[in-house]
Specification:
This protein is an alpha+beta fold. The chain has helices at about 5-25, 70-80, 90-100, 125-135, 140-160, 165-175, 190-195, 195-205, 225-235, 285-295, 305-310, 345-360, 365-380, 385-400, 405, 410-415, 415-430; strands at about 30-35, 40-45, 50-60, 100-105, 110-120, 215-220, 260-265, 270-275, 315-325, 330-335, 435-440. The longest helix has 21 residues, at about 5-25.
Length: about 450
């Protein structure tokens, strides 16, 4: 039977869905300015609900660390919830939760980001707390020793005592050897253990400064009040010289595959974790890389799932995902073998799927579906006040162009099938990769 009419109808339906979603998307309006001390401020009003989000994006991640003192950026993600000159230790969460809000933070290799979401009437509270911990944090024995224990326990749970633990850490160490991306954000427990309080203070003074931060306020607020509050709470801090950052430099040439087999007593099923060098955020191919990853592994109709899980039933889980950092990235390919299935056969079939895209490209229907998925994510990430605040901070931080918050979707939509195949060749048509093979072990 000729399937072309059915495929054509499917493509039309996908395109119609994309058009409807685009029609519903409203551009984000914002105002931005700099305080004399260098703090970049972005304000976005959204009066649809009585809530406000604040985001403070510090330009410091694990890549800014001394290789002999890794984990500092992540450590400060925790330490910033300790005491300040005017806030008792252990009370920041109580202040925000008691006001009916929520709070969190995250660290990556490029950034450390804090946020609050509070009722509109509590926006001054959120700004006051952020201003307090920007320059008035107590980096003392009580807080440091408390957070040493917290961070070491987190590392145990996520890396040391987890099934397939440390695969990402090992992959970065191989692919980015000799660069500030070669260690994981969590850092070394030994480095955190041996670091002194003066070392932590020096790190804080270097990076937690107004001229190394972006402040975003998004939601239901009075701009006059918020501007006055920002000036009063943050304006008194001095501008300092720009932080001294490690240079990224070039990547060390690879001469082939680096393969390691690991007996893992915590793994219930065998697994393969293959990593390839990827692209950075400002690389024009970053958009095609995300779409390619979606085609390979988003949903049960994706290439990898249909071939390796659904058809051959060799795996219980397959997938690929890109890490797109500021100065480089990686894309990884993961497969967890089904019980009783041959791990080597699963890996060969996964490689065949990749080779198929490299040699023959993708279909129009696959590309349209991937664009729909990316578009849906793009729009959903710009619906809530926190999501919009985070997007605004990211576009200013990484591209120096906050307006991309409204324009970047068009760059995904311009990607062609030829772009996808070209990028697949760029990423995967190489023997240079890191492969970790995990096998269950007794004990």
């Amino acid at each position: 039977m000729n399937q072309r009419p059915i495929v054509a109808i499917a493509v039309v339906i996908l395109l119609l869905g994309m058009t409807d979603a685009l029609a519903q998307y409203k551009p984000i309006k914002f105002e931005e300015y700099d305080l004399p001390n260098g703090l970049h401020v972005i304000l976005h009003e959204d009066h649809s609900a009585p809530v406000v989000a604040t985001v403070v994006h510090y330009k410091v991640g694990s890549r800014d660390e001394d290789p002999s003192r890794t984990g500092f950026a992540h450590f400060f993600e925790h330490l910033m919830f300790e005491a300040t000159d005017a806030i008792e230790r252990g009370t920041i969460d109580k202040l925000i939760n008691g006001a009916g809000g929520e709070l969190n933070a995250f660290t990556s290799q490029d950034e450390t980001v804090y946020h609050f979401v509070v009722p509109s009437s509590e926006v001054r509270l959120a700004l006051w707390i952020e201003a307090q911990r920007m320059r008035k944090l107590h980096v003392d024995a009580v807080g440091v020793e408390t957070q040493r224990g917290v961070v070491k326990e987190e590392r145990k749970n996520r890396y040391d005592n987890a099934a397939y633990g440390g695969w990402l850490e090992k992959t970065f160490a191989t692919l980015f050897e000799g660069t500030p991306y070669q260690w994981a954000t969590i850092g070394s427990a030994q480095h955190i253990d041996s670091a002194s309080i003066p070392e932590f203070k020096a790190f804080y003074d270097m990076y937690y400064r107004p001229n190394n931060a972006v402040l975003v306020v998004s939601g239901d607020f009075d701009p006059v009040v918020v501007k006055e509050t920002i000036a009063a709470y943050f304006g008194g801090y001095e501008r300092t010289s720009e932080p001294v950052r490690p240079q990224f430099g070039g990547l060390k040439p690879m001469t082939g595959e680096v393969r390691e087999s690991i007996d893992d007593p915590r793994a219930q099923l065998p697994g393969v974790f293959a990593g390839y060098r990827g692209v950075g955020q400002k690389d024009e191919d970053a958009y095609a890389v995300e779409l390619l990853s979606s085609i390979l592994s988003d949903g049960e109709s994706s290439r990898l799932y249909r071939a390796v899980v659904d058809s051959l039933q060799l795996a219980v889980q397959v997938g690929t995902n890109p890490f797109i950092n500021e100065y480089g990235g990686l894309i990884f390919l993961i497969g967890i073998a089904a019980p009783g299935k041959d791990l080597a056969e699963m890996e060969r079939e996964m490689d065949k799927v990749i080779e198929g895209v490299v040699t023959s490209g993708v279909t129009e229907a696959e590309l349209t579906k991937a664009k729909n998925i990316v578009e849906s994510r793009f729009i959903s990430q710009r619906t809530g006040v926190y999501q919009k605040a985070l997007s605004l901070s990211n576009y200013h931080r990484y591209f120096g162009n906050t307006s991309l918050v409204n324009d970047e979707l068009s760059r995904y939509m311009k990607v062609t099938k030829a772009d996808i195949q070209r990028v697949a060749k760029r990423l995967f048509d190489t023997k240079n990769r890191s492969v970790l093979v995990y096998r269950p072990a007794k004990g």
